[in-house]
Amino acid sequence: MPARTALAGVVAALLLAPAAAEASMSAEPQGPLTSRASAFAALTVLYISLNSSLNLLNRWSLGVYGFRFPLLLTSCHMAFGFAALAPVALRRPWHVHRRKLAKQWRGILAIGAFLALNITLNNASLLDMTLTLNQIIRSSIPVVTCLLAIPVERQRPTLRNAFALLVLTAGVMLAVWQGRVAGAPHAILLCLASTVCSGAMMTLIGRLLTEKLDLVHLTFYTAPVSLLCLAPFAFALEASRSQAGLGCWRHLDKLLQYLPGRQGAAATIIGITSLNALAYNLVHNAMIGATSAVTTTVLGEAKILLLLALSVIVLGEGQDVTPSFMAGCALAVTGFTLYTRAQLSKLAFGQSGTKSKVAKRDVADQPVGKLQLIILRAD
């Protein structure tokens, strides 16, 4: 039942994704209000639907159904995204790519490695952790980003930010610790490591990339790096050598033991989640370009609350919902909300004298864009 529900949502969202993204990007500011409102509403529904379905499908596939190959799943997602977007990226002459790579190879290498670690560690944590707890821990990405900004960007948090992050941290600790650790300790460590990688990527992306890259070219350049980082670990951990082996390539033990009778299911899981991941990335990119920081904040908060509810309803994780866990969730979401509100107030104060210069479309070059990335990618 969870698979059918999530699958139906994915298929519907995938069918609507191209039209909604195109409508949101092509709607002119002077166009009819109803048309722009409809396009934005469709984009918002798609963003939340695709994000929720991707998280639910990953958790169900890896932790409930038993497809315990997070590295293989992540590699397939990245390979599919690269193959699907390559024809678009390659429409530009090769000398343009050569120039970009010559200028930004350090940033591309670092982001590709961080991205591989972030997604893989998070998927691996879902093997032995509820999605509810996973989302609460992942909501602490702003804490990591703020701490890393102190040595990297020489920025110290304000009192409001420090208080908000303290509340957020307390909520995460309360959700994780309820007289005992709620969830497998190794899964919690993997999720924490993934959160650190995500925060590091958010902090360093502005310093590592000397010019803005759109989603298509960022994926085209970083996916091969991520795959190279993942391949040795996927081969070693999920395709181990047989003791009587005549060579690694003929003895993919773990995978071959799993596949008999499940080839169709494995192909469906990989195919649907790969499509879901690609569609989510495209809609996520359109959302960053089409929304203001205030709207993004509301969506980020709504997304976390929705996933907490869906993980209980769809995945049956209600047995882990205790009063102390709910109190921790409430504290964590409150801290996340306070932090984003404080950041928005800071941005509004800094831009109070130049309101006419505030651009919503080109957010990736400004602090608002970084804040939006933190909020939207806290998944």
UniProtKB/TrEMBL annotation:
How does this protein sit in the membrane? Multi-pass membrane protein
Name the GO cellular-component terms: membrane
List keywords of the entry alphabetically: Membrane, Signal, Transmembrane, Transmembrane helix
Q: Which residues form the signal peptide?
A: 1-21
Q: Look up the domain of life of the source.
A: Eukaryota
Question: Where does it live in the cell?
Answer: Membrane
- Residue limits of the Sugar phosphate transporter domain? 42-339
Keyword flag Transmembrane: yes
Name by which UniProt lists this protein: Sugar phosphate transporter domain-containing protein
Organism per entry: Chlorella ohadii
